[in-house]
């Protein structure tokens, strides 16, 4: 087995892996999980971030 045979085998394995991932991604079994993941950014509350590290104009945090 020379290097060209190994390259051919790796190419075929990569193609088979790619096709398998595409079939899995577009299957109806995986659709439910993808739909839930797509809605995650919209499910969180928009809470303000506390300004603990910021300082006021006078130079201290207490004002």
Could you explain how this protein is built, in words?
The protein has 63 residues and is mostly helical. The protein contains three helices and no strands. The longest helix has 23 residues. It is elongated. The mean pLDDT is 84.
Compact overview of the structure:
The protein has 63 residues and is mainly alpha-helical.
How is the topology of this model organized?
Layout: H1 3-25, H2 28-38, H3 40-43
Q: Main attributes?
A:
elongated; 63 residues; mainly alpha
The assigned structural class equals mainly alpha
The helix fraction, in percent, is 55-70%
Average the pLDDT over all residues and give the rounded result: 84
Main beta sheet, described?
none
Form type: elongated
| Total number of beta strands | 0
Uncertain parts: none
Q: Please work out how many helical segments DSSP would assign.
A: 3
SSE order in H/E notation? HHH
